[in-house]
Structures are given as C-alpha cells and as structure tokens.
Amino acid sequence: MSAPLTAVALVCSLKPSPAESSSALMAEHICENLRSAGVQTESVRCVDYAIAPGVEADMGDGDEWPQIREKLLGADILVLTTPIWLGHPCSVTQRVLERLDAELSNTDDDGRPVMVGKVAVVGVVGNEDGAHKVIADCFQGLNDIGYTIPAQGGTYWTGEAMQSTDYKDLDEVPEPVASTTAALARNAAYLAAALRTGRYPSYQ
C-alpha cells in the first residue's frame, strides 16, 4: 500500500504567530478539505521564520528557509495562501517564490527540476480588488518553478473594498467560496495521485 499524499501550506501572512490571520484561516480551510480527501497536511507561517532574501536554496548563516524547503521537497502538494496588498501578493509571498526559484537548477536523475511532478494551489484573501491577478501571478511563478496547477486550483475571498471586514471576521464562509475551496482540494488530491504514478517524461 502506497504512503498517503502529503501537503504543506505556506501561509504568507504579514502577521507572526499567534496573531489571528485570514491567510492562515484560508490555509486551514483548504487543508480541512485535503484531509477529507486523505491527504496529510502541515501548515507553516512563513513570517515566523528568518527567510533571507535571495534565489539560492541556502543563503547561509541565519537563513531558516532550508527548514521549510525540506518540508516542500517531501510533500506532494504545496498550498500557498497570501493576502492582497496594494493589488499584489504580499512581500512574504514574493520572497517565497524567489527562494523557490533555486529549484530550477536542482534536478533529479532524469534532468527534471525537483518540483516537477508536484502540485500547487493558491488561496487569496483581502478587502480590495485583485484576487484574480494575485492568483495568476502566483500560478505563473509556481508553474515556472515546476509545479503543476490543477483545474480550479485557486480560491479566494475579498470583502467590500476599503472596508475593515476580513475573512477571519466572517461568521460563516460564503457557500461559493466553500464550494470553490472544496473543488480545489479534490482536484489537487486527484492530480497529485495521478502524478505520483505517472511521472513527467525525462528531460534528457
């Protein structure tokens, strides 16, 4: 019997633990649905770590990205959640994507970048416009790095523009958001299982 699928959620909130975070809550809602599909999950709030700027796998003394990287290398699915700030993914998200860029030159015995064959999904929260753009920006970066994006692999909630209500303030998740998140998780688990048994062709 094969080992269960695994997922790591990188929460790119600007708020360190234990502060409440809409991005963390979105990650948990995605992970709940993944667990229902038989996937083991773990969440990491990136701002709790000292992630140095750069595009190398290890930037040297004090850089804690290698701890996160090891989790990603062992996972089948990456869940990336981010708030919208000034119409873009937040700065923590951009730093994560920049550090993942190192994996383009980290290849397996068949010449494939090591993230090829892994699945990535994105969750976005905010109270301003831009969710589709932020998802598209993240998808482009993750796909360049080698991740495969499942059908309907993005989910989001945005509140009324220029107001103070956040995702974490909702009494109940709106049904369209909940159903989109559930579809994301089902499709991600299905695709990850398919890629585990049917690998991409050799690059050599």
From TrEMBL:
Pfam family, one: FMN_red
Entries under Gene3D superfamilies matching the protein: 3.40.50.360
Domain NADPH-dependent FMN reductase-like: 8-157
InterPro entries, per database record: Flavoprotein-like_sf, FMN_Rdtase-like_dom
Gene Ontology molecular function: any one: oxidoreductase activity
Signal peptide start and end residues: none
UniProt-recorded name of the protein: Flavodoxin
Originating species: Mycolicibacterium flavescens (Mycobacterium flavescens)
